[in-house]
Structure formats: structure tokens, C-alpha cells
Write a structure and sequence with these properties.
Blueprint lengths: L16 H8 L7 H13 L3 H23 L3 E5 L9 H8 L4 E6 L2 H5 L12 E6 L5 H5 L2 H6 L7 E5 L11 H10 L6 E7 L5 H13 L9 H4 L7 E2 L5 E2 L10 H5 L3 H4 L1 E7 L2
Parallel strand pairs: 1-2, 1-4, 2-3, 4-5
Antiparallel strand pairs: 5-8, 6-8, 7-8
Length: 273
């Protein structure tokens, strides 16, 4: 584990998924290699910016629903990405100022900007862990998790737009199960994922571009996504395309103008019995 304040070692010669996502969202925290790879992807799938934004909006709505309707007050956000306001803790604390959030990511650039993730509301807590999704046991036993989260009380595990960077040979379903199994009854899983269903050739090329940059990945259909939620109780409307998952009234005009093919991402939220 690396703590905020340690000097991050950032490789700017190769693209990184978190920095490419920042580019899709119109941010400035990326480098030339990230820009080139992101623009190559936009060349084969022009909707990539729309996909990234709708994934982010899904996270916002899922967080509010869990806080308002299910009383969740703790979050573990794995694969946080470069801070983009509003961050998850800002959304959660807008509903419940006492909400606690631990962020985790493996990109040193996220570590560099981690203090943005810790500007918390009075009464709330946040922390950042430099860690990898592929090490659930190490992450869950980290001092930051122990200090901020009470794992005897419900925790929402947020896996937003991260599992499409975990191919099947890295056991993504098993990794999710190990996280969920460590959480108590009443905890939640909020998960979103890109899908190749509407443009399989484009998404195959996207996987190639990421792999050429050193990041393996595997997009999955909504049907394949159901396996992540086995043993959990999905909340309405179940697994859906992210832009159609409980849109706020003010979002409806934007959502109506979008197609499933443009967004090409599904999401779902479930409660552990």
C-alpha cells in the first residue's frame, strides 16, 4: 500500500485507463500517450465520450439511491479514477453528511491528486488507498479501510467502469465475490460495465488498443453481467443500460436523445441479503 504524501512514480510513456477516462470526460489530467490512445478509440467508437459520461452519471444516481432509500452510509469505491467533481463522497454526503468513503486505485496519478478526494463534509470521513482491484484481501485489510469503515455495518461496494479491464483469465467474478463475501448483510454492490452488444467489431478494436498500451480488457454483455450479481437482490429496475437506470426527472430530455448503441454500457445495484 502507498499512502497519500508518498511521491508517485508516473509513467507518461504509456497510456493508462484512468487517464484515458479523464480525456473522455474532457479533463486535463492526462498525457500525450493517453490522448493518442483515447483519440484512436474515438476514431472507431465516436460515442466513447458519451459512454464515459453516462457511466459517471450512473454512479451519481446509484450513490444517491443507496443513501436515500437504503440507508447506506459507507462506501468502498474501487477503481476510483482521477478525481472529477462531484466525486462519490460529495454525492453521498449531499444526502448524508456523515457518510464515509474509502477510494482505491492503482494509478500513481490518482494518488497525486488524492487530496481532492478527501475534502469531506463535517462529520464525514474519506481516505484513499493506492491498491489494485485484483488484491481484494490486501485492500480490505488496509489501515485506511480499518480506520474509516466499519465492516460489521453495511458497505456499498462501488465498481464503476472498472471490471471491463479485468479479463476472464483474471477471474473478475471471483474477485467481486471475494469483496462481497467480506461485507455484512445489508451491504450493496453498484457495478457498471461497457458492453459490445451494439458494435462488436468496434469494441474488439478498442480491446486491442488498450492491450497495445499495456492494459488488457474484456467487455461483457448485459447477459454476462448478471453473473456478478448472483446471490444478491437487485433493486429496480435491475440491470439496465446505464442512462436508463432510474434517471432523474431533469435528465429525461438528455436520456431521451440517447440510444443504447451510443452509450454501450449497462449497470445495476443490488443488496446483499
Amino acid at each position: 500500500m502507498t499512502t497519500p504524501g508518498a511521491e508517485p512514480v508516473i509513467d507518461t510513456s504509456r497510456p493508462h485507463s484512468a487517464r484515458m477516462y479523464d480525456h473522455y470526460l474532457g479533463g486535463k489530467d492526462h498525457f500525450e500517450a493517453d490522448r493518442q490512445a483515447a483519440e484512436a478509440i474515438a476514431g472507431v467508437f465516436p460515442g466513447i465520450g458519451t459512454c464515459a459520461r453516462e457511466l459517471r452519471f450512473f454512479m451519481h444516481r446509484a450513490t444517491r439511491v443507496l443513501a436515500r432509500e437504503h440507508g447506506i452510509r459507507q462506501w468502498l469505491d474501487v477503481g476510483t479514477g482521477i478525481p472529477t467533481e462531484p466525486n462519490l463522497h460529495q454525492i453521498a454526503q449531499s444526502v448524508a453528511p456523515e457518510a464515509r468513503v474509502v477510494y482505491a486505485d492503482n494509478d500513481p496519478l490518482v494518488l497525486k491528486y488524492a487530496e481532492r478526494l478527501m475534502r469531506t463534509a463535517p462529520g464525514g470521513r474519506t481516505a484513499y488507498v493506492h491498491a489494485d482491484l485484483r488484491g481484494p484481501d490486501e485492500l480490505l485489510k488496509s489501515p485506511e479501510v480499518a480506520d474509516v469503515l466499519d465492516l460489521t455495518q453495511p458497505v456499498a461496494l462501488s465498481l464503476n467502469a472498472i471490471l471491463h479491464f479485468v479479463p476472464d483469465d483474471q477471474d473478475p467474478y471471483g474477485l467481486v465475490s471475494r469483496f462481497v463475501d467480506a461485507l455484512p448483510s445489508g451491504s450493496a454492490l453498484a457495478l457498471s460495465h461497457s458492453t459490445p452488444e451494439f458494435a462488436p467489431e468496434a469494441w474488439a478494436r478498442i480491446e486491442e488498443i488498450y492491450l497495445q498500451g499495456g492494459t488488457p480488457g474484456q467487455v461483457r454483455t448485459l447477459e454476462e453481467g448478471k453473473r456478478f450479481f448472483e446471490g444478491l437482490d437487485l433493486i429496480d429496475p435491475g440491470i439496465a443500460m446505464v442512462h436508463t437506470w432510474r434517471p432523474d426527472p431533469e435528465d429525461e430530455p438528455r436520456v431521451a436523445a440517447l440510444t443504447d448503441a451510443e452509450v454501450s454500457a449497462w449497470g445495476g445495484v443490488a443488496i446483499k441479503p
